Amino acid sequence: MTSAEVAYKLLKDFIWGFATASFQIEGSTNVDGRGKSIWDDFSKQPGKTMDGRDGDVATDSYRLWKEDIALLAQYGVKSYRFSLSWSRIIPLGGRNDPVNPKGIAFYSNFIDALLEHGIIPFVTLYHWDLPQALHDRYGGWLNKNEIVQDYVRYAKVCFQSFGDRVKHWLTMNEPWCISILGYGRGVFAPGRSSDRERSPEGDSSTEPWIVGHSVILSHAYAVRLYREEFKAAQGGQIGITLNGDWAMPYDDGPQNVEAAQHALDVAIGWFADPIYLGHYPEYMQQMLRERLPEFTPEELKVVKGSSDFYGMNTYTTNLCRDGGDDEFQGLVEYTFIRPDGTQLGTQAHCAWLQDYPEGFRNLLNYIWKRYKLPIYVTENGFAVKDEHSKPIEQALQDNDRVNYFKGITTSLKAAVLEDGVDVRAYFPWSFLDNFEWADGYTTRFGVTYVDYETQQRYPKESAKFLVKWFGDNIDAGDKKLQ
Fold first, then answer.
1. Which residue is catalytic, options 26, 146, 327, 379?
2. Catalytic residue at 453?
3. Per residue in 228-246, pLDDT tens?
4. Does 207 participate in catalysis according to the annotation?
5. CA distance 169 to 163
């Protein structure tokens, strides 16, 4: 092997693995003292999931966790990103509510088993499954004063219970989705919206911005707690993970160029600017005026600099045109159709996703230049069209997903080795097909096929591709030059 070949590899400590979330895989919703989350009853309401199915079983991973870890070990991953169920750990959720020892024991045993297999636990504290009791008690994320205290106490219990072994923490998964999909569009739990056909209560013009504000502050105060009380002894890193796709001007028209930036300001800057730069984006302040909550000077001190890294979830690229009345997109219209009528890329099963790997490289560069912190890509993936209705043999030949990851991994390597972007980790979504929220089980993102009748797991071609790619493209560190 030449020195040039060695040089064109990711560093040996680059972290890669697969990602999941508690409610999407665990099932066993009323086992061992777990309390309800906001998704339990929501997913059972008629019309809330595409196939009418809920999360009571999912991939049955609460029972099959040893098999899951054996498969991760077979794949040879360096790390596994998973989330903790708040209501499994504190069934009623609140700062004065009892902790559930069985919930602690489950995750403690799980973490130990990962470490025994040489797999780094990469832990998300909150991936959308708010304890139902907190929503009922005071409106959950709508009540800043209460939720910040309850979330920080939950985080503290997790740091105390697992922080001796967990060195990578994510506070929140995708605050934009928590806020917009839960309280604006109303398609995710708790399903609040101004649309009275969808929800008897809610206000899409105010609630999402209030919720986003509460999420930022809950994150920031949990990070402050970790840094002040745990970091010295435990030595871990803590940050937040934000969703956001690359925004590309529809054409060179100045209004569309501006529109693409506005799209990024609302999709990413809404959360990233306060956390990394210390203020909300100017465009959002103009767009929302008094509807955008303000941080007190004391809060801002806690918020600014409250993430050790940039956690990045991204899937696609949107072509952006100025116009429309959708504040959640920054008053920007999204399309996948170019001016010449061609599609941007291969269409996924979900309407919002096409394959465009160049956008991934562009977004990595944008985040690196703007926020100047190491990037951990904590989700990225593709749902093959109609995969749920294909025979297993065909579903395992997931060529569109393989092509997606071929493009993405090429872009990842180019961003790191040619553009100098500091990317430290990459977690494809998802380890398994699972409960895809409002899509139910019709949308499959897994690199592993799950037969829901038997709960058998079958590696898809994409899993094999990724395992081989990371084997070939991370410097082993101990090989002598030939």
1. 379
2. no
3. 999 999 999 999 999 999 9
4. no
5. 9
